[in-house]
Write the structure tokens for this entry.
Amino acid sequence: MTLRHLRIFIAVAETRSMSEAARQCFITQPTVSQTIHELEEHYNTQLFERLSRKLYITDSGTRLLSYARQVIDQFQILESSMLDNPAREILHIGATITVGTCLLPQILNDFEDKVRDVGTYACISNTAEIEQKLLDSSLDIGIVEGNVQSPDLVAIPMIEDYLVLVCDRNHPFAGRKVIKAEELEHEKFAMRESGSGTRALFEHYLHRHNLQVTIGWEANSPLAIRNAILYNRGLSVISVRLFEQEILAGDIRVICLASREWERTFKLVYHKNKYLTPSIEAIRCILHDYRRPDFLDGIQVGLLQDTMYE
């Protein structure tokens, strides 16, 4: 088994076509077929199935594809390093929307100050999409707010964060010292999109309290959620970090959860087979410098309580 075998296999898996893989690799179709046959004999497993003249990758093929991409990526890094390629190393970083909005710009500034010969590429999306990009090697590392599902990914808690209930200063909840959980029933909320760690945490809370709320807005944009709160008198449960300026200015009011149910950590995530380059280690060191947000100190906030606190 050679790197050539893996490159041809990846081409077949990505195109789902022997003939298209042959065209991309500048070889004949029989050569592609022979290569796949040799891989299947080497690993004693079927990598593709042909049904109704279409090619489908098997579970074994999917597992090999993940490893093959890792091997090819690391070989390319090795080649660039050993041959002193003038092209800069690029660290591909994924971040969820809260992290990307509030923290990633400063994290990347810190990284560029510390590691000057490495470039960066940032992808901002929700936890589910970042997880998929890590699995298919589109990203080197991720910094996410939600729970990672795949056993092939390593997730290390790094930065403390917590959600708060927010409203504008004219909302009936604004200025109240205590809000009961059941008062959220049927209130109109601006929600993050499905796949968001923020949404998953809030939905777990609603399920635990058997509450139904009205989804008036659904967005992956903090600005859209901000406008829904300020101009349409909606509620939202969101990271306290997202609206620091509006909270300090008094435009958005904060209601903190009495329990610790909405506390969470942002996690550094990477594939379990990923070689941790000096660049990745530098990011991990930088993340240690970020702490729990404390700008609510001295600001009057409300309290969201369960009925059990009565």
